TrEMBL record:
<dbReference type="InterPro" id="IPR002347">
    <property type="entry name" value="SDR_fam"/>
</dbReference>
<dbReference type="Pfam" id="PF00106">
    <property type="entry name" value="adh_short"/>
</dbReference>
<protein>
    <submittedName>
        <fullName>Microsomal retinol dehydrogenase 2</fullName>
    </submittedName>
</protein>
<keyword id="KW-0560">Oxidoreductase</keyword>
<dbReference type="GO" id="GO:0016491">
    <property type="term" value="F:oxidoreductase activity"/>
</dbReference>
<comment type="similarity">
    <text>Belongs to the short-chain dehydrogenases/reductases (SDR) family.</text>
</comment>
<dbReference type="InterPro" id="IPR036291">
    <property type="entry name" value="NAD(P)-bd_dom_sf"/>
</dbReference>
<dbReference type="InterPro" id="IPR020904">
    <property type="entry name" value="Sc_DH/Rdtase_CS"/>
</dbReference>
Amino acid sequence: MEVWTLLEIISALWAMYSVVTWWLERGRLSQLTDKTVLITGCDTGFGNLLAKRLDQLGLRVFAGCLTEAGVAELRQSCSERLQPIRMDVSSSDSVQDGFRVVKEAVGSKGLWGLVNNAGIAGVAGGTMEWATKEDYQVVLNVNLLGMIDVTKTFLPLLKKSRGRVVNVASAVGRMAVPQAGPYTVSKYGVEAFSDCLRRAMRYFGVKVHIIEPGFHRTEITNEENALRRMDQIWQRQSAETKTEYGEEFLQAAKDAVVAADRFMQDPVAVVDAMEHALCATHPRSRYVVGWNARIMFVPISWLPTDLGDLAFRLVAPQMTPTPACCRNRPLFEEK
C-alpha cells in the first residue's frame, strides 16, 4: 500500500508540474518589434523559414547566408526590416565582418537573440570507417567550431540585452548513428557546448536553448544528395575495403537512406520551437522536435549502453547492415 501511495504522490506532482509548465509556456513577450535577432544558415531549411517567420512577426532580423543567392532570395521575399548578410561561420574573418555590421546597427541596445542554425551533413552513409580525418574537420569547422566562434563573438551584444542563444543540435546528438559519424560527433559537441554555456551564462541573464530535431525534410536530409555523397565516399575506398564490406553493404546503406526519407517530417515544427525559444516569456531549455526523436532517439539514449545498442539494432535494422566479411562469422569469438 505504501508503494502505491508513493506512486500516486509522484503522479500527482508530475501532473501538477506538467500543468504549470504548460501554462507558463503559453506566455509571449510584448514589444517584439524592439527585438533584434541574428540567424546563421539562412540560405535554405530551418534558418530560411525562421527568418521569414520572425520578419512577419515584426522582429528585426539579420539573416546570415553563405551564398549571394541566399541573400538575394531573402531580400526579394522579406520586408526591409530583414537584413541578409554574407556570413561563412567557418571563417573567423567572415564572422567578424558580420559582427561589425550587427554591432553598428544595434548600438547600446544589444542583440536579443542568436540562432546558431548553420550546419552541413558532410560525408554520410555506410560506416564510420569510410570517413577520413579531413571529413570530420570539414563538418566540425561549420557545425561546432563555427558555432562556438559565432557565439563567443556575439556574446557581448547578448549580455547587453540579457538575450537568448538558440543552438540547433540534433536527436543524433543524443543517440549516435554510425552512418553519419562526422555529423553525429559534431552534434554531440553542440550539446556539450550548449550545456556548458547555459550554466555559465545564467549569471549574466543570458538564456541558452537547445533544439533537437529528428528527421525533417531539409537540404541536409535530401535523399538525392545523400545517395550522391554515399557514392562519392564509396568510390574513394581502397579495393581491400570494398571487398571487406561488399556491394551488398553499400546497397543496404542506400536502402536505409531511402527508407528514412519516408519518415521525414515537416520542418515547420522545428521553426515553431525556435520561435518559442526566442519569443516566449518562459521558454524551455531543450526542445525535442519530431515523433521519431521523441519515441526512438531520446528514449534509447536513456537506456544502459548495451541495452541501447540492442534497441538501436532492433528498431533500425536497416541502419546496421553486416559487412560481407562478417556474415558467416560469430558475433563473439573465444580467443
